[in-house]
Write a structure and sequence with these properties.
0% strand, mainly alpha
């Protein structure tokens, strides 16, 4: 009888542990072992969020700006020279893209659980997520840049004032 009571108490304690949030977090270690799944979900998140497209756009801007600057550079023999330089620059930047994406994937896989990544991806594929990607980033990022540039002079003044105050004390 005593053994049955002990066995039932152990079963009760085990069921409490298995149902607890702490155990759910502990089970996250199993999630870590599924890092291949997380990397695949991260790749999808990065693609859906437009990060890869943003990087491609920045690469194109760098190449275009570099091409324009090279054409104006004295000593650049012809537009052929500028085109060759532009091609080399484009290839070099594209070669750098894979290591950058790899680093983003590793960071993502370290910091998000599979459940979180599925939720993120589901959001980006939903109508609300699509609206956010289409409108939100396009509206918010320029607004943020404008807000930063508007406040920058005030920040500089505060830094100057605080610096002078500390030096005088």
């Amino acid at each position: 009888m005593k053994n049955i009571v002990i066995l039932m108490m152990n079963a009760f304690v085990a069921s409490c542990i298995i149902c607890s949030p702490a155990y759910a977090q502990f089970r996250g270690f199993d999630d870590w072992n599924r890092s291949g799944d997380r990397r695949a979900l991260c790749r999808q998140s990065i693609k859906l969020a437009g990060v890869e497209d943003d990087m491609d756009q920045r690469i194109r801007e760098i190449v275009r700006n570099s091409y324009d600057a090279i054409q104006r550079r004295p000593g650049m023999g012809s537009s052929t020279d500028a085109n060759v330089y532009s091609e080399v620059l484009d290839e070099t930047l594209n070669d750098a893209k894979d290591p950058i994406l790899g680093q983003l994937l590793e960071s993502c896989a370290r910091n998000f659980t599979i459940s979180e990544l599925r939720g993120i991806n589901d959001f980006y594929m939903s109508p609300a997520g699509q609206a956010w990607l289409r409108k939100g980033r396009g509206l918010i990022m320029p607004e943020m840049e404008q807000a930063i540039s508007n406040i920058q002079p005030r920040i500089n003044e505060v830094i100057d004032r605080r610096y002078r105050e500390r030096i005088m004390n």
